[in-house]
Amino acid sequence: MILKNKIYWFICLLLISGQQVLAQTATDSSQVKDLYYQALNEKARGDIDLAQTTLRKLLKLDDSNDAAYFELARLELEDKNLGDAAIHAKKATTLKPDNEWYWVLLADIYKRMEDFNSLPPIFDQLIRIKPEKKEYFYDRAYALFLNNELDKSLQAYHEIEQKFGKDDNIIIARQEIYLKQKQPKKAIEEVTSIIEKEPDSTKGYLLLANLYLKLNKPKEAIKVLDEGHARIPGDPYISLSKADAYHNLKDEEKSTRELRMAFASERMDFEGKMRLLISLMSDPKSNEMAPIVRDLANTLTISYPTDARAFALYGDILAQQKQLKEAREQYLKAIDINSRVNTIWEQLLQIELSLGMQKEALAHAYKASALFPQQPLTQFFSGHAFFMEKKYTDARSCFEAALNYVDEKNTPLLTQVYSSLGDTYHALDMFAESDQAYEEALAIDSNNVGTLNNYAYYLSLRKTNLEAAAKMSRKSNELEPNNPTFQDTYAWVLFQQGNYAEALKWIEKAITNSGEKSFALLEHYGDILFKLGDIEKAVSKWKEAKATGETTGENVELLTKKIDAKKYIE
User: Fold this and answer.
1) Does the keyword Signal apply (predicted)?
2) CA–CA gap between residue 2 and residue 191 (Å, rounded)
3) Cβ partners under 8 Å of residue 197, min gap 6
4) Half-sphere exposure of residue 563, counting CA atoms within 13 Å on the CB side?
5) CA-wise closest residue to 274 among 306, 311, 238, 243
6) Which stretches of 198-307 are DSSP H helices?
7) Which residues contact 514 (CB under 8 A, 6 or more apart)?
8) Distance between CA 415 and CA 451 in Å, rounded?
9) What is the C-alpha to C-alpha distance for residues 105 and 93, in angstroms, rounded to an integer?
10) What are the distances in angstroms from CA 79 to CA 43, 65, 88, 92, 375?
C-alpha cells in the first residue's frame, strides 16, 4: 500500500511537471512571437536601436529563430555594423539554407565589406535555389572576376552562354578579363564580334573604339569610328567618341568639330544634350573646354526657347565659369518660363547676394520664400537677403523656417542657419536667443570662424562674458590669420577689457591687412588711441573714418559728436 501510494504520487508529479513544461513552452512561443512583431513595429517607427535590442532579447529565448536573425542582420547592415550583420545573416542561412533572401542579404553584406572571396559560394547557393535566375549566374562570374579568379570567371561566363545563349554583356565581360590578363588581341576579337553580328548598330563601334582608347591607340579608334559613320551616317554618339579620340591625339580643332556635330544632331534628344553638357562641366579638363561648353549651352537655349531647364543649365555653366552677371540673366529667363523650380531661385539669390545686388535679392526673396516655404536652402538665402536690407523680422521667419526643414545630417547648412539666427536675434535685441543660437552652431562645428567672430563681437558690444569673447576671437584669428574683420573684433574685445595697448596692435594689423579705408576700423583705431591718451591722432582717425563716405546713420552721428567734442563717447 505504501509502495502504491508512492507510485501514485510519482505519476502525479510527472503529470504536473509535464503540464508545467508544456505551459512554459507555450508561454515562450507566445513571447517570441510578440517580441518579433514588437521589433517589426519598432523598425517601422524608425527606432532601429530599440528594434535590435528587442530581436536580441528574442534570440536569447529562441536561438533557432531564422527570421529574427535575418531581421537583425538587416538592421545591422542599415546601421553599418557589418561584422555582426554578417554573423547573423550567416546564422539565418544555416538555419534555413533554402531561403533565397537570406543568401541575398549575406551577399549584400559581403559586397559592402568588399569581401569578394566569400561571394562565389553564396551565388552557388542562390543558383542551386533558383537555377532559372540569370542574374545569379552573372553575379557569380563577376564575383570571381573581382576575386581575380580570371580563368574561373571566363568559365562561368561560358556556362552562362551555354545555358542562356549569347549576350553582348558576356562579350564585354570577357573583354575586361582579357585586358586584365594582358591579352589585348583576344579582347579586340571579342568586341569585334559585336560589329560582325550587328554591323548597323552603333554599340559595337563605340565599344571597340573605347577599347582602342584604353589601349592608347586613338588612331585605330578613329578608323573604327569612320567605319561606323560609313554604315550609320550622322550618328551623334559616334561623333562624340571621335571627339574624344581626336582630343587624345591633341587635334582640338577636329575634336571640337565632332562635338558640335553631335550636339547639332536631331538624333540626340534634349535629355541627351543636357547629360552631355553636364558631363563636360564635370570633366577635369572643363577649363580648356569652357568657351565650347558655353557656346553649346547657348545653342541649347536657342533650340529649346521654352524649356526652363536649358536656361538654368546655361546659368549653371556660366556660374561655374565665374561669369556671375551673365549667369544671373539666364536664371531670370528660366524663372520667367517656369517659376516653380526652387533650385533656380537658390542660385539666383546666391549670385545676387555675392554681387552685392541687395535690392534685387530682396525683391526675389519675397517671392522665393513665399513659393517654397519648406525648402531650407531657399529660405536660408532669402533670410540673408532680408538681413542685408535690415528686414530682421522677415529674416528671422526665413531662418527659423530653414531650421525647421533642414536635414539634421546636413551639418554645414545647419551650422550656418544657427549662426545666421544668432546674428538676426542680436539685431532684434533678443540677446538670450542670440547666444543660444550661436552655442548651437558651435556645438555642431566648434571651428566655424564666422560664428566665433560674430558671437565674440556681439558679446563685446554688450560688454558681456568678455573672457569667453576673447577666447573665441583669438581662436578665429588662429584658424584664419590676417583676416582684418577678425583682427578688428579681437581689438575691440581687448578694448572692452581695458587692454588698450594690445588692442592697438590688433587694430593696426587689421588696417594693414584691410588694404582699404574702412569706417569701422578707423573709428575703432581712433577710440583706442583716445584711451591711450593720443587725443590729436584719435581725432585725426575719426575724421578719416568720416571721410570714407558713410554719411548717414547712428554711427555717423556718434562719430561727429566725438570729433566735435574731441573725446570718446559711447
Assistant:
1) yes
2) 95
3) 204
4) 16
5) 311
6) 202-214, 218-231, 236-248, 252-264, 270-282, 286-303
7) 484, 521
8) 9
9) 10
10) 12, 21, 14, 18, 28
Give me 258's grid cell: 565632332
Packing angle of the helix pair 184-197, 168-180 (nearest 10 deg): 160
| Three cell numbers written together for 478 | 588662429
Digits of tens for pLDDT over the chain (570 positions)?
A: 444 455 444 444 444 444 444 344 444 578 888 898 999 998 888 889 999 999 999 999 999 999 999 999 999 999 999 999 999 999 999 999 999 999 999 999 999 999 999 999 999 999 999 999 999 999 999 999 999 999 999 999 999 999 999 888 999 999 999 999 999 999 999 999 999 999 999 999 999 999 999 999 999 999 999 999 999 999 999 999 999 999 999 998 999 999 999 998 989 999 999 999 998 888 766 677 889 999 999 999 999 999 999 999 999 999 999 999 999 999 999 999 999 999 999 999 999 999 999 999 999 999 999 999 999 999 999 999 999 999 999 999 999 999 999 999 999 999 999 999 999 999 999 999 999 999 999 999 999 999 999 999 999 999 999 999 999 999 999 999 999 999 999 999 999 999 999 999 999 999 999 988 888 999 999 999 999 999 999 899 999 988 887 656 677 888 889 989 999 998
Which cell numbers in the block locate residue 368? 522665393
Strand, coil or helix: 46: coil
Long-range interactions of 555-559: CB distance < 8 A, separation 24+: 555/519, 555/523, 559/523
C-alpha cell at 241: 567618341
Give yes or no for a contact between 45 and 57, defined as CB atoms under 8 angstroms apart. no
Do 451 and 441 contact (CB within 8 A), yes or no?
A: yes
Nearest to 262 by CA among 282, 247, 240: 240
Decide if 435 contacts 419 (C-beta within 8 A): no
Q: How far is CA 383 from CA 104, 241, 544, in A?
A: 48, 46, 34
DSSP state of 118: G
Question: pTM for the full model?
Answer: 0.74
Find out whether 418 and 440 touch, Cβ atoms under 8 Å.
yes
Write out the three cell numbers for 262: 553631335
> Rounded to an integer, what distance in angstroms lies between the CA atom of residue 547 and that of residue 168?
77
Contact between 420 and 399 (Cβ < 8 Å): yes
Residue 464 gets which letter from DSSP?
-
> CA-CA distances (angstroms) from residue 278 to 9, 294, 303, 338?
88, 11, 17, 21
CA distance 298 to 567: 61
Distance CA 139, CA 169 (A): 12
Residues 57, 28: Cα–Cα separation, whole Å: 12
Is residue 112 within 8 A of residue 119, CB to CB? The reply is no
